[in-house]
């Protein structure tokens, strides 16, 4: 926000004056008027983002360096600077490592799941006529529109131990072991159930994005490729994929960002992190440490780790995309 | 694009992978089946909401009911103050959408149409802001809202204002990024023509640009609305003691009980919570799809 203020070297010159002397060129190349208008236009969003995002981010890092518990939060005890103490506590805690593995594995499954389902259905939607395509889009928009809590509750109910439709159907098909089976009891089935719900409500974004990309490719390019004797596979790989790459990057990054920090679904479906915390992910873990355990310092340290990891994964992905993009 | 010779019109993939007729019929049957599977949880939710108690708590669930009832809906409005929570959710999501519409539009205009030093830096900062896991900020935000509350109670803990502030800020980076492409797509000649006609910068912004980027604004509004409407974490953290200021996602949890979940009420509540978003989606779906397409093309 401060950067554009510096361009106002001579705010006194009236805009009309510049125009008569230098014509339109002066205005287009960035006169004072533009810089001043930019400040005005950016101010509301800028102030809010600094107050509610940048400053709390700074505070998060700061909090993570202190012993900050119930006593400190209520002002009853002085702050104690720990330096990297909270991080040392985390790194030596086996539970933290389990949560870290949970988070990365769960996010990876959700990202891969929503990407592959979304892309497959976008391709399918491009192959069929209007009516089936519209039905598919309506269903996908419905799943997309369902609030996370509502989606979680209905999936829980479908997979309910006693009254769920899924167990009933499976045991009806002759799989006797599924009668009264609890999906949320085991760590992996619980994660699988949540991942199913997450993929269900997040593939539509990928599908809509990729479908838009496929539609935007001019048919002439594909015809030219087939006239040149390129096989279907070759066309898809060498012509369509590079054209869809920017979209794929957007869809992947958005999925990583969303799935890495999922809170609601885990919290609702596994009742706050599963039996004995077996289904905790970083986000829920930080929440539990801070607000259930009044351990705000440690919770903040988890938040910092989470932020760092997410930025790292995104940057690595972008970098990998750039290098492969240059090679081909 | 479509010449008379190329009729019947086929999608791109149809042209790329020229499937034979039976192949397409098979693909269409598969599409309908997939659509039904995707829609099934929603169907089950609405159906259960209308089922009488005995049929819900049955170990032999059936995908239909011959005796629909409104009893579950009555339950959520009497046992839980659902109308109140519904209104709270509407206020939070509505205010967020309206304000972020203006804020992100103005910011997108500045970032695409004005030349000034530091523009690139700001653009990169907005990209990075999108990657910040806002949920990680819950702890500092909790303390921030606690101190804000002593100065401006409406924006402090236990008030809807705190939720509005947070969701507004969190929806901005993506909204700005999304609108950028739409604003950039408006040709510069148009601006020159407007200037020659005597329209100032502000008039051009509101009377020419604003209507032109409408598809982007709609798509952006939908995504901001969903974000605020869905929120569970911040409502759970900020609205601690003033239950009358709770929002919908938390209101449903009342019916999860250790002694046995009231699935009828839970599904009725979930249905009530989904319907506004669904209606919103159906109305704007055309703009939503073209909006996302426009944003990703940019």
TrEMBL record, chain B:
<comment type="similarity">
    <text>Belongs to the binding-protein-dependent transport system permease family.</text>
</comment>
<protein>
    <submittedName>
        <fullName>N,N'-diacetylchitobiose transport system permease protein</fullName>
    </submittedName>
</protein>
<feature type="transmembrane region" description="Helical">
    <location>
        <begin position="164"/>
        <end position="187"/>
    </location>
</feature>
<feature type="transmembrane region" description="Helical">
    <location>
        <begin position="25"/>
        <end position="44"/>
    </location>
</feature>
<keyword id="KW-0812">Transmembrane</keyword>
<dbReference type="GO" id="GO:0055085">
    <property type="term" value="P:transmembrane transport"/>
</dbReference>
<dbReference type="Pfam" id="PF00528">
    <property type="entry name" value="BPD_transp_1"/>
</dbReference>
<dbReference type="InterPro" id="IPR050901">
    <property type="entry name" value="BP-dep_ABC_trans_perm"/>
</dbReference>
<feature type="transmembrane region" description="Helical">
    <location>
        <begin position="85"/>
        <end position="109"/>
    </location>
</feature>
<dbReference type="InterPro" id="IPR035906">
    <property type="entry name" value="MetI-like_sf"/>
</dbReference>
<feature type="transmembrane region" description="Helical">
    <location>
        <begin position="208"/>
        <end position="229"/>
    </location>
</feature>
<feature type="transmembrane region" description="Helical">
    <location>
        <begin position="263"/>
        <end position="284"/>
    </location>
</feature>
<dbReference type="GO" id="GO:0005886">
    <property type="term" value="C:plasma membrane"/>
</dbReference>
<dbReference type="InterPro" id="IPR000515">
    <property type="entry name" value="MetI-like"/>
</dbReference>
<keyword id="KW-1133">Transmembrane helix</keyword>
<keyword id="KW-0472">Membrane</keyword>
<feature type="domain" description="ABC transmembrane type-1">
    <location>
        <begin position="86"/>
        <end position="284"/>
    </location>
</feature>
<feature type="transmembrane region" description="Helical">
    <location>
        <begin position="121"/>
        <end position="144"/>
    </location>
</feature>
<keyword id="KW-0813">Transport</keyword>
<keyword id="KW-1003">Cell membrane</keyword>
């Amino acid at each position: 926000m401060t950067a554009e203020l510096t361009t106002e070297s001579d705010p006194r010159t009236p805009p009309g004056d510049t125009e008569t002397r230098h014509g339109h060129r002066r205005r287009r190349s960035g006169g004072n008027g533009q810089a001043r208008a930019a400040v005005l236009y950016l101010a509301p969003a800028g102030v809010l983002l600094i107050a509610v995002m940048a400053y709390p981010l700074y505070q998060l890092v700061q909090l993570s360096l202190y012993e900050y518990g119930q006593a400190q939060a209520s002002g009853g005890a002085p702050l104690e600077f720990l330096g990297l103490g909270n991080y040392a506590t985390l790194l030596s805690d086996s539970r933290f490592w389990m949560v870290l593995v949970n988070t990365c594995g769960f996010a990876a499954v959700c990202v891969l799941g929503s990407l592959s389902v979304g892309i497959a259905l976008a391709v399918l939607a491009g192959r069929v006529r209007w009516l089936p395509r519209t039905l598919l889009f309506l269903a996908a928009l419905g799943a997309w529109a369902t609030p996370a809590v509502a989606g979680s509750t209905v999936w829980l109910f479908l997979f309910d131990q006693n009254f769920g439709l899924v167990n009933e159907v499976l045991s009806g098909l002759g799989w006797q072991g599924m009668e009264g089976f609890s999906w949320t009891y085991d760590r992996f089935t619980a994660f699988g159930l949540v991942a199913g719900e997450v993929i269900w409500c997040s593939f539509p974004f990928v599908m809509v994005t990729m479908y838009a990309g496929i539609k935007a490719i001019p048919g002439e390019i594909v015809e030219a490729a087939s006239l040149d004797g390129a096989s279907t596979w070759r066309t898809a790989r060498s012509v369509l994929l590079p054209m869809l790459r920017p979209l794929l990057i957007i869809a992947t990054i958005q999925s990583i960002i969303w799935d890495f920090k999922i809170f609601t679904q885990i919290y609702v479906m596994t009742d706050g992190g599963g039996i004995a915390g077996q289904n905790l992910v970083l986000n829920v873990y930080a929440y539990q440490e801070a607000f259930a355990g009044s351990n705000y310092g440690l919770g903040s340290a988890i938040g910092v780790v989470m932020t760092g990891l997410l930025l790292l994964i995104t940057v690595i992905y972008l970098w990998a995309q750039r290098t492969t993009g240059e090679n081909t | 694009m479509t010449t008379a010779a190329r009729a019947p019109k086929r999608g791109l993939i149809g042209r790329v992978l020229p499937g034979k007729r039976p192949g397409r019929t098979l693909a269409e049957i598969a599409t309908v089946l997939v659509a039904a599977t995707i829609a099934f949880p929603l169907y089950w939710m609405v159906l259960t909401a209308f089922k009488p108690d005995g049929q819900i708590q049955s170990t032999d669930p059936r995908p239909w009911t011959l005796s629909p009832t409104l009893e579950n809906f009555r339950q959520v409005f009497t046992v839980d103050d659902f109308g109140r929570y519904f209104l709270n959710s509407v206020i939070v999501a509505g205010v967020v959408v309206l304000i972020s519409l203006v804020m992100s539009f103005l910011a997108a205009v500045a970032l695409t149409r004005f030349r000034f030093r530091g523009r690139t830096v700001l653009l990169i900062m907005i990209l990075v802001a999108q990657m910040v896991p806002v949920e990680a900020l819950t702890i500092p935000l909790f303390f921030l809202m606690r101190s804000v509350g002593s100065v401006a109670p409406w924006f402090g803990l236990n008030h809807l204002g705190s939720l509005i502030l947070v969701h507004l800020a969190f929806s901005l980076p993506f909204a700005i990024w999304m609108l950028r492409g739409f604003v950039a797509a408006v040709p510069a000649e148009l601006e020159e023509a407007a200037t020659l006609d005597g329209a100032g910068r502000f008039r051009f912004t509101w009377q020419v640009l604003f209507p032109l980027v409408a598809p982007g604004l709609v798509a952006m509004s939908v995504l901001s609305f969903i974000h605020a409407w869905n929120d569970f974490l911040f409502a759970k953290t900020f609205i601690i003691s003033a239950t009358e200021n709770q929002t919908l996602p938390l209101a449903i949890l009342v019916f999860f009980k250790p002694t046995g979940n009231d699935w009828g009420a839970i599904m009725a509540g979930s249905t009530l919570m989904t319907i506004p978003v669904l209606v919103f989606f159906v109305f704007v779906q055309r703009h939503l799809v073209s909006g996302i397409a426009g944003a990703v093309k940019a």
